[in-house]
Structure to design on (904 residues):
């Protein structure tokens, strides 16, 4: 444990520093590949829409023994009813004592016929979920409206809280990134998209931002009054913030993913396919991606945007110049002092000064 | 920045803790008290479960705005009518609610009643018609197809809506033969239809067109009648109620018509009363009552008497009052959840919740050691408060716990735990910066506070917007998420932080015992005690 704690301590002081911000091009490239891959998946495979988006009826038949024969028997029973919309039912085992059967749109009478057929074929109890064709459109429309309202409010909130539009922009980019990749996972894997999935996706928005806000908060703290400093530049301070919150990010992600993982495992194990699985899956993927993007995308991007600010740019140039000078002076006296170990292996530019760590707090 | 503790009012974390815990106890007392008031005692300490967790039927009706806009007014009117209809089917504990501005949701807990779908969503047509011909001697022999078509063609051939109210009345007070010559073929066809009419209760299929005469029957009495085109439509009925007038001991149904309906009714009763003529109240082509007009009603307040029982009178009053839906509805979804599936969904939700909670607690203990106890206590308190609120809201505003709701609560475990993690990490940062542990708790809190608030605000906004824009059970998820975010803030401010302050004064935590999670090596500050300030290196700027 001691090692993990001192790891946190070293991250905090900057003795160990991962160059999240400096190597941003690498992260951007990785993310670009993932985003493009997701978009491609969406283009090639599309999304497998669940019954709620297509309309139709889903029967969940409870059975004593769930094996391939049972599924076939029940499927046959539905076909034998002789309804057009139920001539090609999709039947799957779900959990260990239920079979899910999906058909096209049926009337209530037809639904009752199918239920009786299933019951005479050995199902002990049949639940049905009849979805009208306009239901999915309604859900999708609402979700989209909610998404837009959410984005607008959150952009304004972050801007108001951090007094910095660049952070809003960076947070939004990270958010879009998370959503696209999560959707991409669905496209490639062929997991069904249901209203529960959409809910999960919308929840990810909140979570991803939550995470970003925590990291940005530290960035703001570290860069407060930066222009008055003569030996620290914005990017380095932002990078330090990511490193300082790294332990929190990891712990938080674990704390968030553990329950969601439990939801996913139990959801699939006990119930088979269903809303619990859909929700948990979307959350699991989205939260993992969300943590990644807070660290690797949001902060580097915010720092990059901030560096374009004339005041900051000028300040950075001044500090770097001063640093080069003192390096020259020091270089004449002695060869460059051995640096503390850095895990970053960062290139020569923009190396944080390792001395006087107490001063670095800048408050 | 100055040391945060300086110059501020003396904190009393112990008192905050005691007050907070007293508040929690008071909340549970309130839950118990409300239940006692209820007197029901059903499931006192168990939350109200949604249909997906206890089984039942949910029917979603979607309003179709073909003829005009769906307004909140006519939607809630429709809700009332449908509520009545559901009750009329003998389901008493059903809940009928509007949703999303254009939907009506019927929830029948614990019962599998997909069969009532057809009865609740139909757009019933309620009309007042004149009885043109009564006591038809029906042969009960249905017309063959060709003859039936021929008869219907003859009826359809003329424009019945062109007839004036007086002409319609004349056709009753005299005979249908009093109508103009071009209608006679139609009248003959009607009579032919009437003689062949089969009055089969429950299977009556009458094509009900308001502006044409119809042949139908009263399934209760089996009486076959020929009725005029509608003279008053159901939308003119303002109110109807079942009462027992003081003068009699018989149940009657009082009807109140609006202005236009009153005028027509005035004319009709004026003409029918002297000859003891009858009018019929028709719902969806079915005669629900055909009283004799025995008083000239000028004010639109009619009274239907007969051999009513309380039940039939109330029934009729409701049919009159709620007979016509102001909107057309399409069945958008029917979900019938059997008790076994519902039970296993509940079980799965609870298992997942328990496992998730335990995993997070174990992780807290593993990583934060002694502080893990703070995580356990805080999450425990948060869980207790959330449970209490679910009970309280269940009783106060009918909040029901659904499967997505449970999922929301489970997801919230992680978000709640994050607040503690933020706080702990901030405290460690402060210690690393050179503060003594006791000061670090206060200073770390100062910094963690705004972070926690900002992050929770984002989380709450997400939940809130999800709640506003979500449909159906998804709202349960959003509600649970939003609720727990608020609980999180409450717990962190009033429990976790004061607890940390108190613990920092204890020997075990405050002196940095090896297992406390606040020991020097755990914090990575070998070389000084956690009770000391670091002064050796650097100054503070």
């Amino acid at each position: 444990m001691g090692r993990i704690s001192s790891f946190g301590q070293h991250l905090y002081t900057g003795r160990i520093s991962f160059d999240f911000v400096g190597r941003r091009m690498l992260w951007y490239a990785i993310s670009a590949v993932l985003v493009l891959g997701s978009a491609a998946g969406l283009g090639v495979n599309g999304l497998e829409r669940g019954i709620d988006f297509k309309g139709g009826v889903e029967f969940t038949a409870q059975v004593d023994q769930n094996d391939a024969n049972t599924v076939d028997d029940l499927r046959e029973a539905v076909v034998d009813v002789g309804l057009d919309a139920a001539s090609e039912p999709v039947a799957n085992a779900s959990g260990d004592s239920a079979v899910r059967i999906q058909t096209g749109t049926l009337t209530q009478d037809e639904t009752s016929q199918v239920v009786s057929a299933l019951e005479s074929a050995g199902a002990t109890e049949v639940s049905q979920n009849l979805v009208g064709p306009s239901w999915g459109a309604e859900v999708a429309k609402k979700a989209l409206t909610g998404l837009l309202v959410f984005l607008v409010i959150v952009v304004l909130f972050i801007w108001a809280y951090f007094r910095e539009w660049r952070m809003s922009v960076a947070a939004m980019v990270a958010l879009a990134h998370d959503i696209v990749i999560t959707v991409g996972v669905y496209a490639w894997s062929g997991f069904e998209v249901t209203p529960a999935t959409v809910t999960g996706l919308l929840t990810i928005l909140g979570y991803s931002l939550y995470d970003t806000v925590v990291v940005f908060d530290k960035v703001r703290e570290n860069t407060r009054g930066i222009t008055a400093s003569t030996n620290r530049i914005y990017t380095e301070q932002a990078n330090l913030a990511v490193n300082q919150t790294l332990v929190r990010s990891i712990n938080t992600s674990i704390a968030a993913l553990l329950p969601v993982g439990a939801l996913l495992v139990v959801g699939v194990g006990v119930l088979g396919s269903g809303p619990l699985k859909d929700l948990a899956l979307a959350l699991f993927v989205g939260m993992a991606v969300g943590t990644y993007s807070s660290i690797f995308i949001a902060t580097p991007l915010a720092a990059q945007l901030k560096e374009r600010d004339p005041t900051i740019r000028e300040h950075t140039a001044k500090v770097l110049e001063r640093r080069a000078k003192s390096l020259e002076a020091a270089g004449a006296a002695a060869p460059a002092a051995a640096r503390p170990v850095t895990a970053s292996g960062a290139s020569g530019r923009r190396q944080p000064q390792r001395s006087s760590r107490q001063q670095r707090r800048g408050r | 920045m100055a040391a945060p503790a300086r110059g501020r009012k003396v904190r009393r974390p112990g008192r905050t803790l005691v007050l907070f815990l007293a508040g929690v106890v008071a909340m549970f007392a309130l839950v118990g008290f409300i239940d006692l008031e209820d007197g029901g005692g059903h499931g006192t300490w168990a939350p109200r479960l949604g249909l997906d967790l206890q089984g039942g039927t949910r029917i979603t009706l979607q309003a179709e705005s073909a003829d005009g806009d769906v307004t909140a007014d006519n939607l809630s009117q429709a809700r009332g009518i449908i509520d009545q209809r559901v009750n009329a089917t003998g389901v008493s504990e059903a809940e009928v609610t509007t949703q999303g501005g254009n939907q009506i949701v019927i929830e029948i807990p614990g019962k599998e009643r997909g069969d009532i779908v057809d009865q609740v969503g139909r757009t019933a047509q309620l009309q007042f018609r004149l009885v043109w011909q009564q006591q038809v001697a029906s042969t009960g022999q249905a017309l063959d197809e060709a003859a039936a078509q021929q008869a219907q063609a003859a009826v359809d051939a003329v424009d019945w809506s062109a007839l004036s109210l007086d002409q319609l009345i004349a056709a009753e007070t005299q005979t249908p033969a009093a109508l103009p010559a071009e209608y006679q073929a139609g009248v003959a066809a009607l009579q032919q239809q009437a003689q062949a009419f089969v009055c089969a209760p429950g299977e009556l299929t009458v094509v009900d067109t308001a502006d044409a005469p119809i042949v139908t029957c009263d399934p209760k009495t089996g009486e076959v009648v020929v009725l005029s085109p509608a003279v008053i439509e159901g939308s003119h009925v303002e109110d109807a109620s079942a009462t027992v007038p003081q003068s009699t001991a018989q149940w009657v149904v009082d009807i109140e018509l609006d202005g236009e309906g009153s005028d027509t009714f005035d004319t009709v009763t004026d003409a029918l009363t002297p000859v003891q003529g009858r009018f019929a109240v028709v719902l969806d082509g079915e005669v629900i009552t055909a009283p004799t007009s025995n008083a000239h009603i000028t004010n639109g307040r009619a009274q239907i008497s007969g051999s009513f029982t309380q039940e039939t009178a109330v029934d009729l009053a409701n049919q009159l009052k709620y007979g016509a839906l102001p909107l057309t509805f399409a069945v958008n979804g029917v979900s019938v959840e059997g008790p076994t599936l519902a039970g296993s969904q509940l079980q799965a939700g609870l298992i997942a919740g328990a496992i998730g909670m335990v995993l997070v607690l174990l992780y807290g203990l593993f990583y934060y050691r002694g502080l893990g106890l703070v995580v356990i206590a805080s999450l425990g308190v948060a869980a207790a408060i959330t449970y209490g609120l679910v009970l309280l809201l269940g009783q106060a505003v009918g909040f029901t716990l659904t499967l997505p709701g449970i999922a929301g609560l489970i997801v919230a475990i992680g978000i709640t735990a994050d607040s503690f993690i933020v706080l702990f990490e901030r405290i460690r940062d402060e210690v690393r910066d050179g503060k003594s542990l006791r000061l670090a708790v206060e200073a770390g809190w100062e910094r963690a506070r705004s972070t926690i608030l900002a992050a929770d605000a984002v989380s709450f906004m997400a939940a809130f917007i999800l709640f506003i824009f979500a449909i159906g059970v998804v709202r349960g998820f959003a509600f649970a998420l939003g609720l727990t975010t608020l609980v999180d803030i409450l717990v962190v401010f009033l429990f976790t932080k004061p607890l940390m302050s108190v613990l920092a004064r204890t020997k075990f935590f405050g002196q940095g015992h090896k297992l406390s999670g606040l020991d020097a090596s755990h914090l990575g500050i070998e070389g000084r005690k956690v009770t000391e300030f670091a002064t050796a290196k650097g100054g503070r700027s």
User: Anything to note?
Assistant: The mean pLDDT of chain A is 80. Strands of chain A lie at 48-49, 56-62, 90-94, 98-103, 125-131, 192-193.
